[in-house]
């Protein structure tokens, strides 16, 4: 980050301090994450003109450790007739030692025309668009589609495969499959999967498709909570077996993933703001990346998710407490522990309580506080931000969904929480995440507490670290 922007944002109490974000202006979808020659590259949808959505470019950041980031020159600009209205989301691959970006170009935003394009580089900094662009500009003739964007590409044996986010009018979301030998000439195969889930919109954005052990995972962003399916893949068709959500909150969207040099499947998501457009513009920034999450399969075949180990380098001062009884009458159990840049790992014994959890960003007079709630009785995980801020221009509510707390045999509920100014990210038992944005108006909304409703529970252990800035 430039010194000028550090000075400009130094008193901003809402701007995250250890999550990746550009020096200023608007950011949304993560694009083309890749590990190449000892470095992690993360691109993203970026508007260099201000903190509002328009004029999409590809921003670019580089890291050696997934934690500390150096901001690079803009990678792609809307410079050609086929992408003059925006260079939208996509991916990055290495094709015979040549880094290649595959992205959606927008020649006419008003008419919603979308085409697929590529650009190559010798140094990962300067990118040259192909004279073959657009490489795909014709929709599959037999389908009446709702969209045609966000390529995700992988290689199997001698062929490259691409999926595109789409949908079929009157039917549901769809993911279209293509094949190529050289990334330039593409053959349409078929829809890899067509959804008929009435809960989901009929346009699925930013698809990801990858293998974990012997299962295939399909991830889509259907204008709402990010959905995944675990299943099998045969004859160019995905057969879903189990459905879930990557994140139960309303802030996490359009994730993108890659495999690193250790074989880990790592994913970032865009954490949307939950305050008015006017406030975002005035702040001078909008959008932040989630912490990088590693995905794996549990022994029971369910999807696992956890923060990457590298984040531990940010841990500073540490406090550990254990064996604390909690009841509905308990208050100030974590008195004198304060912070707005924290990592918390807490293990609860459920007891007979109907709900357990933590309170974060709490003011001394309780006028502002945010509750992380594990409702055991109703099998629901949520973050309650209704009292998180006295500011009127903030979207507040209860963000979460169903979660089966009985999945884990040891009976413990383990919460792994990151508090970074306006970002709250929660991992539960390495099986589910929920994310929210909070914007306390009071400078002293820094307190923590424990909660238990409908009975008694016990905090087995809690570790709290004060996190360093990046």
From TrEMBL:
Listed SUPFAM superfamilies: Arabinanase/levansucrase/invertase, Concanavalin A-like lectins/glucanases
Enzyme Commission number(s): 3.2.1.26
Biological processes annotated in GO: carbohydrate metabolic process
Superkingdom to which the source organism belongs: Bacteria
Domain named Glycosyl hydrolase family 32 C-terminal: residues: 310-465
Keyword Hydrolase among record annotations: yes
SMART domains found in the cross-reference section: Glyco_32 (SM00640)
Residues of the Glycosyl hydrolase family 32 N-terminal domain: 19-307
CDD domains: GH32_FFase
GO molecular function: beta-fructofuranosidase activity
Record's keyword terms, sorted: Glycosidase, Hydrolase
Family in the record: Belongs to the glycosyl hydrolase 32 family.
PANTHER family: BETA-FRUCTOSIDASE
Name of the featured protein: beta-fructofuranosidase
Source organism of the structure: Iocasia fonsfrigidae
